[in-house]
Design a protein that fits this description.
This is Adenylate cyclase. Residues 466-600 form the Guanylate cyclase domain. GO terms for molecular function: adenylate cyclase activity. It comes from Phyllobacterium bourgognense. Keywords: Membrane, Transmembrane, Transmembrane helix. This protein has 4 domains: 3-29 and 345-436, no CATH class; 48-106 and 123-339, no CATH class; 460-620, Nucleotide cyclase, GGDEF domain (Alpha-Beta Plaits); 648-717. The protein has 723 residues and is an alpha/beta fold. β20 (508-513) and β21 (516-521) form a beta hairpin. Strands 19, 20, 21, 22, 23, 24, 25 and 26 form an 8-stranded mixed β-sheet that branches. Helix content is 44%, strand content 20%. The chain has 24 helices and 26 strands. It starts with a helix and ends in a 20-residue tail after the last helix. The longest helix is centred in the middle third of the chain and has 33 residues, at 405-437.
Length: 723
C-alpha cells in the first residue's frame, strides 16, 4: 500500500465515521428527510379505502348553517346521541371537549339575568344533565385534551394487563388534562385523549400515540377506546420487551392486535380523504329523520363526531399532503386496525441503517482506492438500486419502514470524496508509473510498484539483483542468409517469445541489444526468490525455443536450428533511472551486470545453453545443477565457478539425475586431481546424460578439453570492468 493510498483510506474512513456518527445522532434534518421518504411511499401506494364500519358524523358548514354556530347546546348533542343509538351505532366517540358547563343551557342563561327568582332555577332544564342522561347506558366515548395547568386526570374506564416489563414509562407524558364535566365523565362508557401528535413540531400527522402516561397510569386515545367499547372489551393487553422496561411492542384490544413503536405509537397508513367516510350531522338530525341509506351506514358502525368546518380550526395535514379534519384521523386509526394493514418501523431499523452506512462507505473507500472508481461507482449504483428496491418492497409487501436515503446519500458523499482524492493524488502517481514502466514489467509487478511506497525514485539504488543475459548463437551466420527485413522478422519472433517469460516471472526487461536480451530481478521492488524466478524464466525460454524450432517458426527448415546462450548471476548492482532529465532509462549497472554478460559468453566454451554463477547456484537448492568449472571471465582477474542448469526441482529430485550427479562429482574430483580415472567417469557420465537431456552429451564431450577449468587456482583480487 502506497503512502497516498494510506492517506486516502484514512481520509475516506474518517468521512465514513463522521457520516455514521451523524446518522447515529439523527439530527432533525435527517429525520425530516426520512419522514418525507416514507410520505412519498404512501403517496405512491396509499392504503386503499374500504367501506368498513367506521363513519364520521361531520359538523360541517352545512350543519352550522342549519343549526347555528358552534358550540351547539348540549341538548342537541343529546338528540344526536339518541338518534345514533336508535340507528344501531356500536360506539359513539366525540372528538369534542366538554371542559366547561354548557353556556347555552336555560339554567345557565337565567342565572345571569337580573331580577329572576333563584328558586326558579331548579325548575329549568340543564343541558349538561340532559346530555349526561342521554349518554347513560350508551356506548359513548368522550375525549379530553392535554393541559399545562392543574393536576386533573380523567377516569380510566378500562383495565390493563401486561406481558413482559411494565411499559408505563414508554408513552408520551401527560402533566394534566382538560377536565370533563363530572356527570358526563361518570356516565361515559369510555374516555380517551384526542391529541394526535403531542410534542411533535411537524404539522404532518404520521403517527398517533395510542396511550399517554403520567408515569403510573396509562390513558388510551379516543380511537382505541371507541374500538374497545364497540367490542364490549374491558381490558387492554400490552406486550412489552423482555427485560427492557418502558417499551411497548404490541397492543391487544379485544380480537385485534396492533403493532406499535416502543413508545406505543401507531404509524398511520393513510387513505386519500373521501366523502364516503363522512355523514353530515344535519342529515342525522333532520326533522323528518335520517334516510334509510344513512341508517344502514350507521348501523353497527363506530361513529366519530367531529367537525370539518374551517372556522373551528381542527384541520390536520396527512402524509399524503392532504388537509383533513382531525376527527377523520381518529376514524382512519380504527379503519387501519380493522383492515389489518399496518406500518411499522422495527426498533433495529436504526441500527441496520447506521451499520449499512458504515459498511457501504468502507466498501466504497476500499474499492475506490484499491480497485477503481468505475468499479466503485458500479457497486455504489447497484447498492443504491438494491437499497431502494429493498426499502420499497419492504414497505409495499410487509409495511416495514426502512430509510434508503441516508445510506445512499452517505455512500454518494463517500464515493465522491474518495474518487476526488484518487484522481488528484493516487492516480496521478500511478499514471506516471505506468507510463514509465508499462513496456518493461509484468502487470503483477507493475501493480506492486503502484502500491508500494517509494517504489519509483529517480537516481540509483544499490541492491542485490539477479541479472540475465540471453544471446542468439551463430547470429552472424544466420543474418548473412537473410534480407534485412527477414532478420527483423526473425528477431521479433524470437525475442518476443523469449521476453514474455521475463515478464511472466516478475522480471524487468532492461533492454534489447541487437540479438541479445538483458533482464534483471528484484528491482524496482523486492521480488521474493528472485534467483528462482530468473532460472524459471531461463528454463521456459529453453522449452519455447525447442517448440519454435520444432514448428519451423523461423522458416529455416531442419538444417538450421536456432540456439541461445543464457548467463545468470546474482550480486550487488546499482539500479535506477539513469540519463538526462528529459530522457532517462531505468537500468542496472555494476559488477553483477558484467559477470552475467561474461557468463553468457562462456556458454559457447562450455557448450551448454544455461549457466549460472556460484552465487546464484547457492540460492537454488534442489535444482538440477552440474558444476561446469571455474572459468576466467573477460575483465576478471579471478576465475568464476559456473554451474550448468540442467532442469528444475522436479528433475533435481529424480533418481536418474541423482545418479548422474554422483558420477559427475567423481568426474570433477578426478579432473581436479588430473587422475586417469577421469576417462572412465566421463564415459559413464555420457551414457547417463543421454537419458536426461539432449544438451548434456556435448557438454561432456567438451569437458575433456577443459580440464584446466577444474584445477584449483590460487585466490586473486577481484576486479570489475564495465560491459
Amino acid at each position: 500500500m502506497t503512502r497516498a493510498q494510506q492517506v486516502g483510506v484514512l481520509i475516506g474512513l474518517a468521512i465514513v465515521a463522521a457520516l455514521t456518527i451523524l446518522r447515529a445522532s439523527d439530527p432533525p434534518l435527517l429525520k425530516q428527510a426520512r419522514d418525507l421518504t416514507f410520505d412519498e411511499y404512501q403517496r405512491i401506494a396509499p392504503r386503499t379505502f374500504e367501506n368498513l364500519p367506521v363513519k364520521v358524523v361531520d359538523i360541517d358548514e352545512a350543519s352550522l348553517r342549519e343549526f347555528g354556530q358552534w358550540p351547539w347546546p348540549r341538548d342537541r348533542l343529546a338528540t344526536l346521541v339518541d338518534r345514533l343509538g336508535e340507528m344501531g351505532a356500536s360506539a359513539i366517540a366525540f372528538d369534542v371537549l366538554f371542559a366547561e358547563p354548557d353556556r347555552l343551557s336555560p339554567r345557565t342563561v337565567v342565572r345571569d339575568v337580573a331580577g329572576i327568582d333563584p328558586s326558579l332555577l331548579g325548575q329549568l332544564p340543564d343541558n349538561d344533565e340532559i346530555f349526561a342522561q342521554a349518554i347513560t347506558g350508551k356506548p359513548v366515548i368522550l375525549g379530553f385534551g392535554l393541559s399545562n395547568e392543574g393536576n386533573y386526570r380523567p377516569q380510566v374506564k378500562a383495565g390493563f394487563a401486561f406481558t413482559g416489563e411494565n411499559p408505563a414509562g414508554a408513552p408520551p407524558r401527560i402533566k394534566a388534562a382538560t377536565p370533563l364535566r363530572p356527570e358526563l365523565e361518570a356516565n361515559a362508557a369510555g374516555i380517551g385523549h384526542i391529541s394526535l401528535n403531542p410534542g411533535d413540531p411537524s404539522a404532518v400527522v404520521r403517527a398517533v400515540p395510542l396511550f399517554l402516561s403520567d408515569g403510573e397510569q396509562l390513558y388510551p386515545n379516543l380511537a382505541l377506546e371507541a374500538l374497545r367499547v364497540a367490542q364490549g372489551a374491558s381490558t387492554y393487553v400490552l406486550a412489552g420487551a423482555t427485560n427492557v422496561p418502558n417499551t411497548i411492542t404490541m397492543v391487544k384490544i379485544g380480537e385485534f392486535e396492533v403493532p406499535v413503536t416502543a413508545e406505543g405509537e401507531l404509524w398511520l397508513y393513510i387513505t386519500p380523504d373521501t366523502a364516503e367516510r363522512y355523514i353530515s350531522a344535519k342529515d342525522v338530525l333532520a326533522q323528518g329523520g335520517a334516510t334509510p341509506e344513512i341508517k344502514n351506514a350507521i348501523d353497527g358502525s363506530i361513529v366519530f363526531i367531529g367537525t370539518s368546518a374551517a372556522g373551528l380550526q381542527d384541520i390536520r395535514t396527512t402524509a399524503l399532503g392532504q388537509n383533513v379534519p382531525g376527527v377523520s384521523l381518529h376514524a382512519q386509526t380504527v379503519e387501519q386496525i380493522l383492515s389489518g394493514r399496518f406500518l411499522s418501523r422495527p426498533d433495529w431499523a436504526n441500527g441496520l441503517e447506521i451499520l449499512s452506512i458504515a459498511a457501504m462507505g468502507s466498501l466504497l473507500v476500499i474499492l475506490t482506492t484499491f480497485v477503481s472508481p468505475a468499479v466503485a461507482l458500479v457497486c455504489g449504483l447497484l447498492i443504491t438500486v438494491m437499497a431502494l428496491v429493498a426499502s420499497w418492497l419492504a414497505f409495499f409487501y410487509a409495511g416495514l419502514l426502512f430509510d434508503p436515503l441516508a445510506p445512499i446519500v452517505s455512500g454518494s458523499i463517500t464515493h465522491f470524496a474518495a474518487t476526488s482524492f484518487r484522481f488528484l493524488v493516487i492516480d496521478r502517481e500511478r499514471r506516471e508509473v505506468r507510463r514509465a514502466f508499462g513496456h518493461y514489467l509484468s502487470p503483477s509487478l507493475l501493480y506492486r510498484i503502484e502500491h508500494t511506497r517509494n517504489a519509483l525514485r529517480l537516481g540509483g539504488d544499490d541492491r542485490e539483483l539477479t541479472v540475465m543475459f540471453v544471446d542468439v548463437r551463430n547470429f552472424t551466420e544466420i543474418s548473412e542468409r537473410l534480407t534485412p527485413a527477414e532478420v527483423v522478422l526473425f528477431l521479433n519472433t524470437l525475442l518476443d517469445a523469449l521476453s514474455r517469460h521475463v515478464i511472466a516471472n516478475e522480471g524487468t526487461l532492461d533492454k534489447f541489444i541487437g540479438d541479445s536480451i538483458m533482464a534483471f530481478w528484484n528491482a524496482p521492488v523486492d521480488v521474493a526468490n528472485h534467483a528462482n524466478k530468473a532460472v524459471h524464466a531461463a528454463l521456459a525460454m529453453r522449452e519455447t525455443l525447442a517448440r519454435l524450432n520444432q514448428d519451423n517458426a523461423f522458416g529455416f527448415g531442419d538444417e538450421q536450428k536456432v540456439g541461445i546462450g543464457i548467463g545468470i548471476h546474482t550480486g550487488l548492482a546499482c539500479v535506477g533511472n539513469m540519463g538526462a532529465e528529459t530522457r532517462f532509462n531505468y537500468s542496472a549497472i555494476g559488477d553483477a551486470v558484467n559477470i552475467a554478460a561474461r557468463i553468457e559468453s562462456s556458454c559457447k566454451e562450455v557448450s551448454f545453453d544455461i549457466l549460472v554463477s556460484d552465487s546464484t547456484a547457492e540460492m537454488l537448492p534442489g535444482y538440477a545443477l552440474l558444476e561446469a568449472g571455474a572459468l576466467a571471465l573477460k575483465g576478471k582477474s579471478m576465475r568464476t565457478r559456473l554451474y550448468a542448469v540442467v532442469g528444475g526441482e522436479k528433475l533435481g529430485g529424480s533418481a536418474e539425475f541423482m545418479q548422474l550427479q554422483a558420477i559427475h562429482a567423481q568426474l570433477i574430483e578426478a579432473l581436479r586431481l588430473r587422475s586417469s580415472s577421469s576417462r572412465r567417469f566421463l564415459r559413464i557420465a555420457k551414457l547417463q546424460a543421454v537419458e536426461i537431456t539432449s544438451g548434456l552429451p556435448e557438454f561432456y564431450r567438451r569437458i575433456s578439453r577443459r580440464a584446466d577449468h577444474f584445477v584449483d587456482q590460487p585466490a586473486a583480487k577481484d576486479r570489475s570492468f564495465g560491459i
